[in-house]
Amino acid sequence: MKKYTFLLFFWVSISVLAQVKGNITDTNNAPLSFVSIYLDETVTGTTSNDNGAYVLNITKKGKHTVVFQILGYTTLKKEINITSFPFDLNVQLEEENVQLAGISISTKDNPANRIIRNTIANKDKNTDKYAKYTAKFYSRGLYKIKDAPEKFLGKNLGDFGGALDSTRSGIIYLSETVSEIHFQKNPKKFKEKIIASKVSGTDNGISFNRAEDANINFYDNSVTFGSDLISPISTNAFGYYNFKLEGSFYDTNGKLINKIKLLPKRKNDRVFNGYLYIVEDDWAIYGADVSVTGAQVNIPIVDVLNLKQNYNYSEANDAWVLISQSIDFKVDALGFNFDGRFSSAYSAYNFTPKYNENTFTNEVLSFEKQATEKDTLYWNTLRPVPLTEEETVDYKFKDSLKVVRKSKKYLDSVNKKQNKFNLLSAITGYTYRNSYEKWAISYNGLINDFNFNTVQGFNVSLGGSYFKKQNDTGKWWNVGGKVNYGFSDKRIRPTFFLTKNWNDISRPKMTISGGITTAQFNGRNPLMKLNNTVSSLMRRLNYLRIYEKEFAKINYSEEIVNGIYLATSFEYANRKPLFNTTDYSFAKQDKNGGYKPNNPSDVIDVFEEHKIATLNVGATFVFGQKYLSYPDRKENIDNEKYPSLNVNYTKRFGASNSELNSDVFTANLTQDINAGNYGEFSYNVRGGVFLKKKDIAFMDFLQANGNQLLFPLDRELSSFGLLEYYKFYTNDKYAEAHIQHDFKGAVLGKIPLLNKLNLHLVGGAKTLVMADKKPYTEYSIGLDNIGFGKWRFLRVDYVRSFHGGIKDEGLLLRLSMF
């Protein structure tokens, strides 16, 4: 063992010594960050850190030519003769002399337009040159906060894991990732294996610096950068951009580089601002220095996102390939002021990899064994970009601090502060934690389930739970209960639950529950308690219809194989009718005709009390599901090319009246399709059929989700806009369909003056068909992204409905976050 340790240390020592290092500054001696440094005629190198320092690993002595390249500065080639390692090389870069001299400008055509047209025409030709490749990818993420608030929404924020100094400023997140990536253009495939991952101050070291997330490709028509933006070399780029040739210069290889300024035609379009650098004759991207605002990407808390990319010429395949990238952002909202940077470097390209049918699978991210456990010596040899002094101090401080903060003494002291009980705790809730033993006892608080309905009147719940974490890979259990009390019907209804989860890979979870509760007649729960409380008290409209259920139930769910989820449950219940016990409201007695009875239908009589058993067996198929394999969990990614299908069989049996027993099949198909520059298209189709038509209880009918509220808090793709609650139900066959297209800025962004409002046009249609009723149809047109300044969460829809020759219309207000 000692022999191997010595060999490792010897190898590390040699690796550390075999390098060229130094600092890069401008002519004013200011450090230059994000400079690409590489050996001439290669695409393997490094970048400088925020202080302008760099380390370039070179193993051979002798003569070399080192290239220093960054947008805005003249590329420098430096010939060196290495006689010993390490070799110090400090350089100074001069600002690029971009000029229009010698460029022939025609009055008939903007020269920048000619360059962009040629670049668009040659996109496939250029990207075909690296249609397959493998590479090494390095990423570093850094978040820094300034003057952090001590509290947010009444909660003490602490010191962010020891990150803050006396001014409540400092690094709150620092991570690094080194991985191997595999890429294929057609059909598009991507795979990443993380070799090493490190997060300051944590044990597991699992960062979220993914190579695929950093794959910002301007050659695509739609560029994912905070949101889906229109590329300046998209096939329809001239509908969104004007272009201006700022000037040209020659790089060290004698290639003419054109600097093109991007001029968005409309301020708030989903477009980039800044500069694109294009290689003359090759019509390839040389670099990008662009930015977008928070309004453009619809992320209101973000002030600005900046992106820089550097490309280098590869003789191996006569192509310009990406070698480095940085993303900078600034956030100033809700009292938080922080900025950050994600910087990336690509190296060791292989443009002739040999792939087989097993190269690409649905697993798009994996971790090498012990990837999160690499020590400092390992990172010093692997890291292509040296740490700044601030980053080095952060690693050392937090790595030593985490040992202290894992101790029982420290965790007990933290819990002592967290576990303080105050007067508001009785209303808002309270949790007593034991972080060292990994358990917590919680009290829900009076406000958690406080609401009003005409059956119970004002009602409130008191409840609590005990949570125990058993390991770090998702094994836990949770037990709890609550007691609900209605002040009008004077009924106490207790319930309990016990939940066990075994892991975060397939997530097998079982829940046992029971007690006495109230349930909506529509099991899809179309109405939120908050909505009903407001409508009842303010407008005397009691939309909620409920019944009482004494029950015992067991649920089990698991992802049995990738993309196939099993969910099953068994319940035995005694179901009882309930009646209004109060007519209290803030509104006048005769407002809107007064309260309605609790019976959901004027046609069907109130059901009689009965006992019944219900078995549900369901499966969800997420076709083409990709997934990320982390050391402690699996994260799934929907594939927008394919829909998701849910099928379910429900059998109700054991009732004293056999007519109440039933068998029903339901299916649900959903999909969200990214339409690139033209927005997003979504649909939801649901259908069901009973094996035999019988006189069943109302809550067992197949039902549509209605809405009679001006401001509903539901998902618009699962409910109708103007349909009365409980009006459409069947014990036979039914189908419903919802479609919607959000055009983002593709339509309104092209209309003068109106485009300054940055509104999004949304169109939709819904239909409902039942075997024993006439079809119901809705059409809607709406405006999304309504708000003030950066805060744009409101949506307004105008809806028209048609049913049996009767037309209706109305407006709906929605929060677009729901």
Characterize the structure shown:
With 818 residues, this protein is mostly beta strands. A hairpin with an 8-residue loop joins strand 36 and strand 37 (662-674). The strands form seven sheets. It has an 18-stranded antiparallel beta sheet that branches. The protein has a 13-stranded mixed beta sheet with strand order 16-17-18-19-20-21-22-9-12-13-23-34-35, sandwiched between helices. The radius of gyration is 31 Å and the shape is globular. The two termini are 58 Å apart. It is 11% helix and 47% strand. Helix 1 packs parallel to helix 5. The chain contains nine helices and 45 strands.
**pLDDT < 50 runs, ≥5 residues:** 1-16, 101-107
Distance between the termini: 58 Å
> Into which percentage range does the β-strand content fall?
over 45%
- Tell me about the biggest sheet? 18 strands, antiparallel
Radius of gyration: 31 Å
How many strand units?
A: 45
* Count of discrete alpha- or pi-helical segments spanning 4 or more residues: 9
Helix fraction, binned, reads 10-25%
Looking at the structure, what is the overall shape? globular
Indicate the mean pLDDT.
Answer: 89
Output the structural class: mainly beta
Give a concise summary:
The protein has 9 helices and 45 strands. The protein is mainly beta and 818 residues long. The protein is globular.
